[in-house]
């Protein structure tokens, strides 16, 4: 029953999204009589403060110069609005290195996310829609890999890359980020629901090759699942600190995370060089904004994608 | 009725079988080609390093003679290494304190949002999720400043009401401060997984209970939570894996509070320091391997006990 239910839900979801309340297409006849609870509303919004205030502090602090940072109340603006000065500082110190870090991060994250999504989509599609010897074993191995601590793998990966002479190159960041066992799992679940077998049969009867069918029929139907895997790989690579930290030596190649940590280390080691604090804070703000925007704009996709994954999970 | 179609199919079989078997073979080849790229990267980036790490852990590098086979010496050393045990104890504290708090809060938020009784619940959901998009590096730096005694707002408020300066970054308090950072980062993510599962419960399941006069709490406890058990288990497993792997938080708090964070504060951070600061690659590999083994064992036990519980309940009902 749940099987049918999810399938129905997914096919309703896929072509055009509807707001969450009607989303499952499930009737909620009693919702009209439900009373809104003021107590619950107040409680929830108070809790929201915990999640939002640190980010609010980050924003407010990046509008202050260093002396105001120390002398004014942290959760409200200081006398001067120095956000632009801070940004100019951030982007021009050390020959515009920060801009380079932004470029690196965008490049690593996009390449890795596109690659991981493609690989996961192809593998997940094959697992969902084909029968082949070894399918069960291969899929269980993939699932088991979710358990392997990726950071525990980083050390041997580093040694292998060092032997191949690939450390301190973009490859060292991108290639390890291409593996997404959870992405394969999610795409399999998604493909099983979203792609109808009869469509594939029809394409085969028409003489379409398997790869053309995948691109023209399968890929399109996988939309929200693809966005989910893409977004989570994007965030994974964007936020990754451990891998670039061990793989990269030249600060020209750093992504934002390692760069920020380096400025922070310099700032606290320098002690007196207080100017660095506002650079770290403004840099943090700049690092956060693109991802928050990506999640906000793509929320309808990743939320439906995640729900498919967790229902079957 | 079942007979006629079978008979017809048998008659048509020879020709059909030849066609299906060539198209089956083609499909099989296509399937292998589809999974090939993934498994190539999977093999080189996951399986090979895993075995390499196991291999390394059996060696020792000596000043004279270089790499030498050492058998289980590195593992024996790890088992007697109080720094390693200390780091595992701190992970245990995370598993017993931070993970339950985080997941219970996430579940409460998910249930509250799913009940549809709060105003602006869509916005609330997004705002609670937002910290997930914040890189752990930024989250740790930010909280490090927030905790800070100089311009941290918490200290400012505490001083203003006359409570003195709270000390979040002392050796005694840093573990709690770190738990708070991780909780802040991941409540939203776990909440979204649970919320998505809640939305897919067929409404009939609990509307019947509601008609019978069961209150919201009753419905949540006896209908909704059991229904989303698989999703909750998913978050438990992910949180266990995540706790063992904590690296960014101790590593960055170390620059903020060097006295409070030792180089073996968390096992993963310890392995990193062993490998890249102390240059003890083989021992670090053994620690990393033990860590992976431990994660697999703990996740397996959790899953097994869940399956047992399920079976027991099925027998009871």
Can you give a write-up of this model?
Chain B: Residues 1-24 are annotated as: Disordered. Chain B: Residues 1-13 have a biased composition (Low complexity). Chain B: The chain crosses the membrane at residues 29-52, 91-112, 124-146, 174-198, 227-247, 283-302. The complex is a heterodimer of chains A (313) and B (317). By secondary structure, chain A is mostly helical. Chain A has a single domain (82-312), classed as MetI-like (MetI-like fold). Chain A is 74% helix and 0% strand. Chain A contains 16 helices and no strands. Chain A has helices spanning 2-13, 20-23, 38-61, 66-71, 83-129, 135-145, 150-163, 171-174, 181-194, 197-205, 210-221, 223-239, 242-247, 256-270, 275-297, 299-312. Chain A is globular. Chain A starts with a helix and ends with a helix. The longest helix of chain B has 54 residues, at 3-56. Chain B has a two-stranded antiparallel sheet. Chain B has helices at 3-56, 73-79, 82-114, 121-129, 136-147, 153-160, 174-199, 203-211, 216-227, 229-244, 248-256, 267-276, 281-316; strands at 59-62, 66-69. In chain B, a hairpin with a 3-residue loop joins strand 1 and strand 2. With 317 residues, chain B is mainly α. In chain B, 76% of the residues lie in helices and 3% in strands. The chains are: A mainly alpha (313), B mainly alpha (317).
